[in-house]
């Protein structure tokens, strides 16, 4: 703990990914990085062999389960990596950055307040194959972008807006009066939208800087569409609820900073895996603790927008979960169907629900099909079938294959006695089945 | 309660999974045992000696619930009887099965009892007489399957209790009971 004090701490998610600030996007990742403060004769303050993430707002260092961050706002200057010489051939590449520090030597955001003093932090890249020049170029680009300033400004502006004070820009505008006023306002809005779309797509670098506006635009469209659907027609309709849910999915903006091969490099799968673990939490909760891998893949890619991942990458990310301390796991059913489930998810609970479902009079008579189970359990039919098959293998159910299809019945075989085939054990599941079947025969 | 002829069917005969071969080991074992007992019980009650796999056998389908055993299931259940010595395949193709609801040894004992009860020691009978003669009327031997009877007689011959010889007509054989 002592060693970390000179840097502000950074919040991490349950699976060890940084929690990003509003509008923050990650740009590069390098592993096996040391962070050395300038005055550290004993070496106790040095942060050793962690993961360094360069984002548009911060330099985040993650070691073990703790994260620290250098806000880019505190960086006064970055020195390019030392040129290759015979001497530096054998030592790790270093990038030095000058940061503003407070009186007690802690790195602080230099924006706003008067600059007290500065200190130099050295980034030592111990990993092989990492290109210091490339990283430096990225850092420089991000520094030039000054995305953190924009965020701070936005926050201030929105605070003003909430307070109700009319900005100067507002005062110059023509007042909105009558139909022409509304039309003019619409027109203005369209022009603005068009302009930002146009600007954004001019080149990809510009898109990066426009990302925040794009996200806001999308959010606005979404809320507009959602409010539109609620005002039209009567609420409470099942179908409408479904379509609204769907819309919510389709319009959700998703992951603001997807892990990409470009930004993460060799750490790609590891970081992707952690991000996926964070992401599936919500859909898992909605689906009752288990979700088909295919469904998760679709949702994940949908959330990533244009940064699509391949099925292989998805599978690899899931299969390396075992190595991390994440709350989810990949499970393969005997049939080969793969699902993502919470580690705490218990089959027992599902089984007891299946058993009580199969013991209802109707189910005793006609059995249950995977689609019946899907309806009752609120899960996908393919998954329901897996659950039924697992329940069968546990001896809770047994199957019935007929021209009418594949159905499952509650298993009464354990109640039957081959040495007396006419005996009906009292108070057994079998006796319940017999009386139900008899009642059905009498009424039918 | 459902019946086939004079035979009363058990309640589980209307349980649809009873007619589908169960894949889970424990369930399957119980199912096979139940089928074995039902087949033996049925054959004993109605004096049925053979079951043809491809013929209509009343036990193998239940019109009430519209379920029929598959060929595979029939073979599994009959093979289970065969492996226990309670049945035998009549031909190599596993098309027909001889059901031994009494073991050959028990049939041999029946024949000896029949001989003793009727005072037939040292006398001669044809095989056909044993099956359908006046003496056997009302006994367990009435209407016995010829193959089963021959197997029982051969067992007795090995023990020196009877002698089998060719009769006058080509298709019948004579049996001499020893004292």
TrEMBL record, chain A:
Keyword annotations from UniProtKB, A to Z: Coiled coil, Cytoplasm, Endosome, Protein transport, Transport
Keyword ATP-binding among record annotations: no
One example GO MF annotation: ubiquitin binding
GO cellular component: ESCRT II complex; late endosome membrane
InterPro entries: GLUE_dom (IPR021648), PH-like_dom_sf (IPR011993), Snf8/Vps36 (IPR040608), Vps36 (IPR037855), WH-like_DNA-bd_sf (IPR036388), WH_DNA-bd_sf (IPR036390)
Domain named GLUE N-terminal: residues: 10-155
BP term (GO), one: protein transport to vacuole involved in ubiquitin-dependent protein catabolic process via the multivesicular body sorting pathway
UniProt key word Repressor: no
Subcellular location: Cytoplasm; Endosome
Pfam families the UniProt entry points to: EAP30, Vps36_ESCRT-II
Function: Component of the ESCRT-II complex (endosomal sorting complex required for transport II), which is required for multivesicular body (MVB) formation and sorting of endosomal cargo proteins into MVBs.
Similarity annotation: Belongs to the VPS36 family.
Subunit structure: Component of the endosomal sorting complex required for transport II (ESCRT-II).
Designated name of the protein: Vacuolar protein-sorting-associated protein 36
Organism: Acorus calamus
UniProtKB/TrEMBL annotation, chain B:
GO cellular component labels: ESCRT II complex
Listed SUPFAM superfamilies: Winged helix' DNA-binding domain
One Pfam family recorded for the sequence: ESCRT-II
Highest taxon of the lineage: Eukaryota
GO biological process, one term: protein transport to vacuole involved in ubiquitin-dependent protein catabolic process via the multivesicular body sorting pathway
Alphabetical keyword list: Protein transport, Transport
Record Gene3D superfamilies: Winged helix' DNA-binding domain. Chain C. Domain 1, Winged helix-like DNA-binding domain superfamily/Winged helix DNA-binding domain
InterPro entries for this protein: ESCRT-II_cplx_Vps25-sub, ESCRT-II_cplx_Vps25-sub_N, WH-like_DNA-bd_sf, WH_DNA-bd_sf
GO molecular function, a single term: protein homodimerization activity
PANTHER family: VACUOLAR PROTEIN SORTING-ASSOCIATED PROTEIN VPS25, VACUOLAR PROTEIN-SORTING-ASSOCIATED PROTEIN 25
Family (UniProt): Belongs to the VPS25 family.
Name of the protein: ESCRT-II complex subunit VPS25
Organism: Acorus calamus
Phylogenetic placement of the source organism: Eukaryota, Viridiplantae, Streptophyta, Embryophyta, Tracheophyta
Primary gene name: VPS25
């Amino acid at each position: 703990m002592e060693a970390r004090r000179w840097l502000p701490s950074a919040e991490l998610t349950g699976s060890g990914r940084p929690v990003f600030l509003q509008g923050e996007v990650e740009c590069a990742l390098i592993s096996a990085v040391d962070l050395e403060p300038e005055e550290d004769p004993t070496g106790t303050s040095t942060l050793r062999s962690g993961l360094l993430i360069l984002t548009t707002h911060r330099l985040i260092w993650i070691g073990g389960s703790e994260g620290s961050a250098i806000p880019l706002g505190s960086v006064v200057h970055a020195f390019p990596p030392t040129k290759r010489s015979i001497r530096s051939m054998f030592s790790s590449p270093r990038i030095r950055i000058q940061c503003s520090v407070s009186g007690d030597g802690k790195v602080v955001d230099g924006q706003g307040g008067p600059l007290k003093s500065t200190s130099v932090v050295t980034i030592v890249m111990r990993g092989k194959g990492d290109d210091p020049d490339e990283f430096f170029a990225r850092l420089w680009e991000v520094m030039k972008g000054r995305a953190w300033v924009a965020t701070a400004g936005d926050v201030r502006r929105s605070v003003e807006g909430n307070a109700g004070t009319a900005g100067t820009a507002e005062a110059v505008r023509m007042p909105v009066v009558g139909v022409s006023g509304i039309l003019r306002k619409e027109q203005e809005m369209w022009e603005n939208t068009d302009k930002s779309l146009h600007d954004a797509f001019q080149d990809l670098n510009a898109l990066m800087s426009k990302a925040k506006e794009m996200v806001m635009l999308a959010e606005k469209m979404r809320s507009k569409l959602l409010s539109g659907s609620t005002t039209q027609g009567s609420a409470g309709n099942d179908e409408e609820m479904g379509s609204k849910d769907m819309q919510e999915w389709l319009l959700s903006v998703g992951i603001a900073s997807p892990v990409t091969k470009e930004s993460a490099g060799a750490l790609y799968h590891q970081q992707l895996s952690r991000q996926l673990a964070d992401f599936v939490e919500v859909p898992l909760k909605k689906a009752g603790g288990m979700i088909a891998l295919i469904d998760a893949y679709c949702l994940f890619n949908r959330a990533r927008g244009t940064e699509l991942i391949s099925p292989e990458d998805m599978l690899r990310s899931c299969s390396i979960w075992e190595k991390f301390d994440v709350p989810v796991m990949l499970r393969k059913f005997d049939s080969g169907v793969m699902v993502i489930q919470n580690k705490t998810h218990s089959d027992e609970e599902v089984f007891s629900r299946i058993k009580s479902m199969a013991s209802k009079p109707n189910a005793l008579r006609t059995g249950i099909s995977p689609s019946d189970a899907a309806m009752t359990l609120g899960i996908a039919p393919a998954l329901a079938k897996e659950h039924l098959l697992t329940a069968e293998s546990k001896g809770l159910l047994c199957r019935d294959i007929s021209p009418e299809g594949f159905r499952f019945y509650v298993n009464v075989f354990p109640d039957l006695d081959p040495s007396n085939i006419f005996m009906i054990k009292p108070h057994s599941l079998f006796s319940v089945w017999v009386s139900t079947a008899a009642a059905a025969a009498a009424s039918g | 309660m459902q019946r086939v002829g004079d035979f009363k069917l058990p309640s589980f005969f209307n349980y649809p999974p009873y007619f589908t071969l169960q894949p889970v080991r424990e369930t399957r074992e119980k199912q096979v045992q139940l089928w074995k007992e039902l087949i033996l019980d049925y054959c004993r009650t109605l004096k049925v000696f053979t079951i043809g796999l491809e013929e209509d056998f009343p036990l193998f389908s239940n019109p009430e619930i519209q379920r029929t055993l598959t060929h595979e299931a029939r073979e599994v259940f009959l093979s289970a009887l065969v492996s226990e010595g309670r049945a035998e395949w009549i031909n190599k193709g596993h098309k027909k099965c001889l059901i031994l609801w009494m073991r050959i040894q028990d049939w041999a004992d029946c024949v000896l009892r029949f001989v003793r009860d009727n005072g037939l020691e040292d006398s001669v009978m044809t095989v056909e007489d044993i099956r359908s003669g006046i003496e056997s009327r009302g006994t367990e031997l009435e209407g016995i399957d010829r193959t089963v009877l021959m197997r029982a007689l051969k067992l007795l011959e090995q023990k020196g209790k009877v002698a089998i010889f060719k009769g006058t007509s080509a298709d019948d054989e004579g049996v001499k009971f020893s004292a």
